[in-house]
Design brief:
The protein is mainly α. It has 19 helices and no strands. The protein has helices spanning about 1-10, 20-40, 45-50, 55-75, 75-80, 85-100, 105-120, 125-135, 140-170, 170-190, 190-205, 210-220, 225-250, 260-280, 290-310, 315-330, 335-345, 350-380, 380-400. Helix 13 (about 225-250) runs antiparallel to helix 17 (about 335-345). The longest helix is centred in the middle third of the chain and has 30 residues, at about 140-170. The relative contact order is 0.16.
């Protein structure tokens, strides 16, 4: 097994060969970000119309990520059978179905919407990672994964700036339908790239097919993979709370209008976009990945505390700057983390192992909103941001024991 993996690592592909897969996986992620953030961005509008508390958006996020955990557990074999980009197309269709259900507006269909979107979300990262790990040269892997991960921020910026304006003009239900249509169109547009690139991942990925239990065993036995998995869990918890509750915090706690509160999220997503490229350039070559992840974890912890302490009489420009820094740290780490995971994971079973690790990341996306909602119930939304700061601090400290210079 180790001989095969070593031969695979020696066959370094050219960087130019990664451009097409980056474009395809980036485009899919942009559209998925629109679908994922549609309900959280418009939560105050939706809650006011159907007569529930806006903080119940945390329940939507919990259902979404529980479904993502379930779908990630079966992602490995499906990626091998269908190919990464075909898997992405299936995910987009599931997104469209979930968004169409959300447009109805009943609590029951909103719950089904979360499940549909979650089923579409789960396989996306393992499938794109299987493709990019195959086509990206090792020395450029941090930057390649970081560039692809900017799709989430690009979609988040679009959602933050456009969805509130569209909701005011058309109504939030029509925004859901527009996002659903975008997902279907994206699935069609990806087809030419799928025909060109899907075979690359199938040539080498998942030479050894591992069940979830076996893949989890590989993760547990590796010092590096254990620490990376826990940090991913903690940082995911922080990131989802940023995306899910920042707009509501702006409206409820700070007294902002929906458009201004949406700008907070858009600036956070812009910070995440810049951060993903910046940290991708710096990681590995200039700064050890473990040092970078420790620093980012401490910074996102401090910024979450500051956002939680913010009050309505604070200067608006200061709040917007904090939102940007929040995104720079709490949404900027993903590409570097994924690249580090693929570097430490055995290449011959990358899909199943990434699926197992991402299941814990998705678990963080479930636990984060629960921790936030419980704290918010007793301490208000400000207390929610303080509570998830504890999780991100624990994740940061886990990186202090990682040797990022030597793969396992």
């Amino acid at each position: 097994m180790s001989g095969i993996a070593e031969n695979m690592r020696r066959a370094e592909p050219p960087l130019a060969g990664a451009v097409g897969p980056i474009v395809a996986t980036w485009f899919i992620q942009v559209v998925m970000a629109l679908g994922m953030l549609a309900v959280p961005t418009l939560a105050p509008e939706i809650a006011a119309e159907i007569g529930v508390e806006a903080t119940l958006v945390g329940g939507f996020a919990t259902l979404l990520w529980l479904a993502a955990i379930a779908s990630s557990l079966v992602a490995g074999p499906l990626i091998t059978q269908w190919g990464p980009l075909r898997m992405g197309q299936v995910c987009l269709v599931l997104y469209a179905s979930g968004l169409a259900l959300a447009a109805h507006g009943s609590l029951a269909l909103l719950a089904l919407s979360a499940i549909g979107i979650g089923f579409g979300c789960g396989p996306e990262t393992p499938s794109s990672s299987a493709l990019l790990a195959r086509v990206a040269p090792t020395r450029w892997r941090n930057l390649v994964f970081s560039a692809k991960q900017t799709g989430m921020q690009a979609g988040g910026m679009i959602a933050g700036f456009m969805f509130p304006a569209l909701a005011l003009a058309l109504g939030w239900r029509h925004v859901m339908l527009v996002a659903a249509l975008a997902a279907l169109v994206a699935a069609i547009l990806v087809e030419p790239l799928r025909r060109r690139y899907d075979h690359l991942a199938r040539e080498t990925s998942d030479i050894v097919q591992l069940g979830f239990g076996a893949a989890l065993g590989v993760v547990w036995r590796s010092h590096a993979l254990r620490r990376l998995t826990f940090t991913g869990f903690a940082f995911c918890a922080m990131q989802i709370c940023l995306s899910t509750f920042l707009v509501t915090h702006g409206v409820v706690t700070l007294g902002y209008g929906l458009a201004l509160a949406g700008s907070m999220l858009a600036l956070a997503q812009a910070g995440g976009l810049i951060g993903r490229i910046l940290w991708g350039v710096l990681a590995g070559g200039h700064i050890a990945t473990s040092t970078m992840m420790l620093t980012l974890g401490l910074a996102m912890t401090a910024t979450s505390v500051a956002i939680g302490m913010a009050r309505a009489d604070w200067d608006v420009s200061s709040i917007l700057m904090l939102s940007f820094i929040f995104g720079l740290t709490a949404s900027g780490w993903n590409g570097v983390m994924l690249a580090e995971m693929t570097r430490h994971a055995p290449a011959i079973a990358l899909g199943p192992i990434m699926g197992a690790m991402m299941a814990f990341g998705y678990l963080g996306l479930v636990v984060g909103p629960i921790v936030f909602a419980v704290a918010a119930a007793f301490l208000g939304l400000s207390g929610g941001f303080l509570a998830v700061a504890i999780l991100s601090l624990a994740g940061a400290l886990a990186m202090s024991g990682l040797n990022s210079r030597a793969a396992v």
